[in-house]
Amino acid sequence: MRLNQNTLLLGKKVVLVPYTSEHVPRYHEWMKSEELQRLTASEPLTLEQEYAMQQSWREDADKCTFIVLDAEKWQAQPGITEESCMAGDVNLFLTDLEDPTMGEIEVMIAEPSCRGRGLGTEAVLMMLSYVTKLGLTKFEAKIGQGNEPSIRMFQKLYFEQVAVSSVFQEVTLRLILNEPVRQWLLEQTSHVEEKPYRDGSAEPC
Questions:
Q1: Which of 56, 109, 194, 200 has the most CB atoms around its CB within 10 Å?
Q2: For residue 185, what are the contacts with CB-CB under 8 A and spacing of at least 6?
């Protein structure tokens, strides 16, 4: 999505940057993992296919993608590459053509050393806050039934289970962005800074 191609979001634990060609080799290595393929319901791609996918995601008007960087690592070493700080990604899909206020959100913390540290939680909160400018008021997350950590994380963010699919073996959780939830989201993301992003050359503060 072109909306975020020049946007960097700086949080406490994560930095969100647009998905660029610089990030593809590391992303490709992650997606060779059978565990991640299973958790994300993804098929393995060649490196060339991964580059093509990155380009299509960037141009796709119905998909907003940020790469999640480990903020601690990114800020600790001046001049460090973004690729070496990558922790995962967070995505927002506009999948319901009949309801433009609905978005589907997903997050993946692919780097094992970055799991269990709250990076996924902050990345989701930052994405939710960022895309409210699109007029979205409902969010869904579809998660594999066996992915208990992810289900618990979304439930802590006030997502409620609305459906279970035995065919796809996934749980659908939904968040309605009413006024109390909107205020809560503002409070949770009040520390986030939005900065301009220059492809692959965003400098730590």
A1: 109
A2: 125, 128, 129, 132, 177
Alpha helices in 77-161 (DSSP H): 119-131, 148-156
* Residue 3 Cα to chain centre, angstroms: 15
Phi and psi dihedrals of 174, rounded to 5? -135, 145
Q: Check: CB of residue 127 under 8 Å from CB of residue 194.
A: no
pLDDT at 203 over 90: no
pLDDT value of position 164 = 95
For the chain, what is the mean pLDDT? 89
pLDDT, tens only, 119-147: 999 999 999 999 998 899 999 999 988 88
Sheet of 102-109, strand order: 160-165, 170-176, 138-144, 102-109, 86-93, 63-70, 14-18, 7-10, 193-196
Pairing of strands 14-18, 7-10: antiparallel
Is residue 9 within 8 A of residue 126, CB to CB? The reply is yes
Q: Across-strand partners of 173?
A: 141, 161
Asked if 43 and 91 touch (Cβ cutoff 8 Å), the reply is: no
| Percent helix, strand and coil across the chain, each to the nearest 5 | 40, 30, 35
The half-sphere exposure of 183 on its side-chain side, counting CA atoms within 13 A, is 2
According to the model, what pLDDT value does residue 1 have? Answer: 65
Alpha carbon separation from 65 to 20, 34, 61, 145 (Å, rounded)? 10, 22, 11, 24
What is the distance between the alpha carbons of residues 3 and 198, in angstroms, rounded to a whole number?
14
